[in-house]
Amino acid sequence: MNTTSQGSDPWEVVFKQGLMSGEGGIRTHGGPKGHNGFRDRPIQPLWHLSEQRRNYILFCARSSTITPMQINEPVISSSDSVRATWAEVNLTRLSRNLQAIRAHVAPARVMIIVKANAYGHGLAEVAKTVGPQADYVGVAVLEEGIFLRELGVKAPIIVLGGIWGDQVPQYLKHDLTLTASSVERLEQIDGVAAKMGVKARVHLKIDTGMERIGVHYYSAHTLQEAALKLNNVEVEGIYSHFANADMSDLTHARLQLERFKEVLRFYEKNSLPMPIRHMANSAAILQLPESHLDMVRPGIMLYGVYPAAQVLRTVEIQPALAWKSRVVYFKVVRAGHPVSYGSTWQSDHPVRIVTVPVGYGDGYFRSLSNRAQVIIRNQKYPQVGRVCMDQMMVNIEADSGFNGDEVTLIGEAGEAAITAQDLADWAGTIPYEILTNINTRVPRVYFTEDKN
Ligand SMILES: Cc1ncc(COP(=O)(O)O)c(C=O)c1O
User: Are the beta carbons of 14 and 20 closer than 8 angstroms?
Assistant: First the structure.
């Protein structure tokens, strides 16, 4: 309901009655239709509102075996039904994206990359959904690998990051594949494996132009030769990582691939079995088919997001995550009255401003201030004034708004859509950072598109 159904122009009523002068006088609480086009409606629980659209909703619960030190999984409790800000994850889209990737790269195998809380989508549910369909699972840090093992993931899991200190026994205890980036580390792994009476599964990491971890391509033979002398290490794989596969100019990416292929000749020259070769991230999967080799490592595209605006869209994917909130407040702001900290925005005419309970404390970046848009009732509106820690304001001009109205921060509503790439463009960053920064205080709500 809104005031346009009253017959008179609500906008006029507001100003004639002088009702825009203070926030206390602006809201009505379930009384007659709002004099300013806004009144409180009871906020309904998420699952009630979503019932017609969803067949089931899974709430991701924290496993009792997981300590906060191990992983920051979103904590969902019954009280989250009153939380006005949440992220929806469409598990059906996740599975479909994986199928589309698999079809595109076949016969290459697929390692799903689920680091950083599965790019903000929630590691546990993502792993449970697509883990069984993956050939390999890739994480960045040891804790993520242990978390997945404790969750019951049986697929091979590799930790792609560097190893430090005395971590090696933990890897072996949890049957995790290690990334070996130096001869010293390889020998340490061999020694620990010998003591534990196990064989360590390792992938050699070759740096072909990223200058991150990995032995340089021009000295890779030292690592390859060292591995041959060790009895407690199985070199199951060998890999490298692209620095620039998301660019339109693929010259550097091709150079990296050539360097990697040169490193691989070691096995041919010495008539040795070839380890699993992998190099392609999402951008390379899309733009550089010759880099698919034996296995690919899709991260962001698994979640339905293209790595950058300019990459070729050779695989059709759909975003799995939508980020939503609700209008919690309304006020009419007079001309010349600035909004929010720092008074960075003001209107030269009276406007209707709604407050949305999401802020940089949820991962909605402050750099989005005065740049972003949101969708309310299928229409896009600009965010105005500085984004605060927990709240932000949106200018709905002369339109009507209700307490409880759904606000789409990322996602689709009617014909309108806002993507993670849009937010990235507005914030001057990349969609990866947008997704992985959606804070754990934002509950994740999972659903499938099953019709039964
Ligand atoms: C080693 C490695 N492989 C694969 C990926 C997945 O990359 P993307 O999300 O671009 O597909 C990453 C992510 O940064 C990575 O570090």
Answer: yes
Summarised one tens digit per residue, pLDDT across range 6-31 is 333 334 334 333 334 223 223 322 33
406 CA to centre of own chain: 21
H/E stretch holding 227: helix 220-228
* Block residue for tokens 């006088």: 25
Residue 21 dihedral angles phi and psi, to the nearest 5°: -85, -20
Would 52 be classed as within a structural domain? no
Question: What's the whole-model pTM score?
Answer: 0.85
Same domain, 138 and 277: yes
pLDDT, tens digit (0-9, with 9 covering 90-100), for 85-144: 999 999 999 999 999 999 999 999 999 999 999 999 999 999 999 999 999 999 999 999
- For residue 297, which atom of ligand 1 is closest to its CA? 4
Whether the CB of 300 sits within 6 Å of ligand 1 = yes
pLDDT for res 63: 28
Specify the CATH number for the domain of residue 435. Answer: 2.40.37.10
Active site includes 446?
A: no
The reply to whether ligand 1 has any atom less than 6 angstroms from the CB of 307 is yes
- Domain membership of residue 401 as a residue range: 3-45+321-447
Residue 152 covered by a domain: yes
Report whether residue 373 contacts ligand 1, using a CB cutoff of 6 Å.
no
374 forms beta bridges with 381
Residue 209 has what pLDDT?
Answer: 98
Q: In degrees to the nearest 10, what's the CA dihedral of 6, 12, 15, 19?
A: 10
Residue 102 shares a structural domain with residue 209 = yes
Per residue, the 3-state secondary structure of 256-283, as one string, reads: HHHHHHHHHHHHHHCCCCCCEEEEECHH
User: End-to-end alpha-carbon separation of the chain, Å?
Assistant: 33
